[in-house]
Amino acid sequence: xxxxxxxxxxxxxxxxxxxxxxxxxxxxxxxxxxxxxxxxxxxxxxxxxxxxxxxxxxxxxxxxxxxxxxxxxxxxxxxxxxxxxx
Length: 86
Known about the structure:
The protein has helices at about 5-15, 20-30, 30-45, 50-60, 60-70, 80. By secondary structure, the chain is mainly α. Helix 1 crosses helix 3. It starts with a helix and ends with a helix.
């Protein structure tokens, strides 16, 4: 997972920005289309079916997401998140 995808997850986990793509896009300085692309990529990489599942996983792994936030080229191992949610 890319560092930017981790940022999207972290913002989604806090709920402080609202839960709309528009709010996420505004806070990240990117377009809504880019937010949708990141969410689609996150769903695919983690094997999740919905935005609700993404929000649940992001909330459960908020500390880990904070640890990779801002690291250049940070990659998040898929097994770390997908495997521990079962």
